[in-house]
Amino acid sequence: MGTFILEMENITKKFSGVTVLDNVEFRLKKGEVHVLIGENGAGKSTLMKILTGIYQKDKGRMRLAEEDGSMQTIEFHSPKDALDKGISMVFQEFNLMENMTIAENICIGAEPVNKAGILDRKAMNRHAEKYMKMAGLNVSPGKTVSSLTVAQKQCVEIAKCLSHHARILILDEPTSSLSEKEVANLFHLIEDLKKQGVSIVYISHRMEEIFKLGDRITVFRDGQYIDTLNVKDTSEKELVKLIIGREFDPSETYGQGRISGEMILEGKDLQIRKFKEKVNFQLYKGEILGIFGLVGAGRTELARILFGIDKTKEGNLYKNGKRLKISCPQDAIENGIGMVPEDRKQLGLITKMSIRDNLALAKLRDMPWVLKSHEREEKLTEQYGRLLSIVYQSSAQKAERLSGGNQQKVAIAKWLAMNLDVLILDEPTRGVDVGAKAEIYEIMRELTEKGMSIIMISSDLPEILRVSSRVLVMHDGGIRLNEKTENLDQEKIMHAAIS
Ligand SMILES: Nc1ncnc2c1ncn2[C@@H]1O[C@H](COP(=O)(O)OP(=O)(O)OP(=O)(O)O)[C@@H](O)[C@H]1O
Ligand SMILES: [Mg+2]
Fold it and tell me: Is the pLDDT of residue 374 over 80?
């Protein structure tokens, strides 16, 4: 494996005068999995959007290998130009027509017609099925996309790329909402594609994936090209240093030993709607309670009950020994309970609003109107922006224009701006880079030192062990394990999660 299929050189891109890619390079070999890594906002997605014709570069050169191996300079003016050259991308945010069928989505723009010029639905479904099979999707091609799970939608995206005879397939954080089994399936698929000579660009923040899957890694930092390495010649420690530009201890723990005797929240016989079991748990002052479980174990459902989104069938919730009546999120907030949800787009952030307004919404709600001012909001944005190292251009920037990880930080900052004593974080570091992860953990530690109690739901086992004071493991809507973190390891937790 040695020949290059793609060379990007001296690529520069500015958005409204701000340079987000500065003279970067990227070289892809035939049949390799090339990991593109860097902190949130480093410019990874932007470079790939240039490669797929969505954005135009301001400067630089792109060359693509022809059949005979010679390099040909390419200029893309639209995504179609890139598709025609066999370059396809599965986006961080999918790009499917939800109300159309799988087959319609796969064949969009190239629908087969019969002799009379009428859409040949049978041929379309057959065509779609061929690529669905390659992508490992075993459902009817006539199914509507909106009825599919996230993993299935991703397979549709991949099938769509394959149907365009992708030579280069770009996956932008493809595993961020997949279960463990679905991740394994995706990895098999990637290995298969590799064998067929497809080159994969793989964007991810998850270290273990990079070492399992990647052949080479290119690191970006702050819009700059840093280095390209062979995966087998590097270590996690070296990589992290390149990514964040400083030494960093990936084994530091945050919540261990932080267990007081003072119970703050207690759930007695709570019952999650679709399950039979009852959940009993205690949350102590100043601790980080990690809740682990596989997808579908009932973790998010439990959080939704605590935050008043869903109702428990039975049982009660007590805070400082007093029974709580929580029937909506407003009740929860009034009782000092906040939540950063799993899907920041739905509940965490108003992406059409500016960063400043998102933060102000939480903090300034209770302030007398005379005290509200633009200046105050500006200060607040600056304070939390700095605290969480949010990379943004101006406080008036719409949240949707932030990189994925930075959106998550704003969603967290929004709640930190309120005075709460219980904060529920559902997958708080999904899509967040290593450096920012450590910053978020650090903030969680600081908050607990001030007496706040945190419930952290996570599917990331190493994260659960690093961050929690105590761990609850859920399965089928019930608690399977409740133990101090120092007595646990990955195996014990996993064992409880599947039994
Ligand atoms: N359409 C746009 N308009 C203005 N600024 C943008 C736009 N798209 C991206 N940016 C900015 O460009 C920078 C790079 O963003 P990009 O999405 O490429 O980062 P990333 O490396 O993919 O980050 P993440 O890991 O969080 O997904 C960020 O500062 C972002 O705010
Ligand atoms: Mg991105």
Answer: no
Kindly report the number of other CB atoms within 10 A of residue 75's CB atom.
Answer: 10
Report the CATH number of the 263-498 domain. 3.40.50.300
Mean pLDDT score of the chain: 87
Residue 190 pLDDT class (50, 70, 90 cuts): very high
Find, among 210, 257, 271, the residue nearest to 434 by Cα.
210
pLDDT at residue 60, rounded to an integer: 97
325 CA to centre of ligand 1 in angstroms? 42
The pLDDT value given to residue 168: 96
Q: How far is the CA of 36 from the centre of ligand 1 (A)?
A: 14
Do 317 and 324 contact (CB within 8 A), yes or no?
Answer: yes
pLDDT in tens, 424-478: 999 888 877 887 788 888 888 988 998 999 999 998 888 999 999 999 999 999 9
Reply yes or no on whether the pLDDT at 377 is more than 90.
Answer: no
Q: For 222-355, where are the E strands, in sequence order?
A: 224-230, 263-270, 279-284, 288-292, 316-319, 322-323, 337-340
Instruction: Kindly list the domain boundaries of the chain, sorted by start residue.
Output: 4-244, 263-498
Query: What residues have their beta carbon closer than 5 A to ion ligand 2?
Result: 45
Ligand 1 atom nearest the C-alpha of 404 is 26
Ligand 1: centre distance to CA 42 (Å): 7
Pocket test for ligand 1, best of 14, 19, 35, 45 (most atoms within 8 A of CB): 45
N- to C-terminal Cα separation, the chain: 43
CA 16 to ligand 1 centroid distance, Å: 12
- Output the CA 346–ligand 1 centroid distance in Å: 20
Distance CA 102, CA 305 (A): 34
User: Closest ligand to 431 CA?
Assistant: 1
pLDDT at 338 over 60: yes
Q: 4-244 with 263-498: one CATH topology?
A: yes
Fold of 4-244: Rossmann fold (3.40.50)
**Position in ligand 1 atom list of the atom nearest CA 18:** 5
- Cα-trace Rg, the chain: 24
Closest Cα to atom 12 of ligand 1: 20
Average pLDDT over residues 71-92: 91
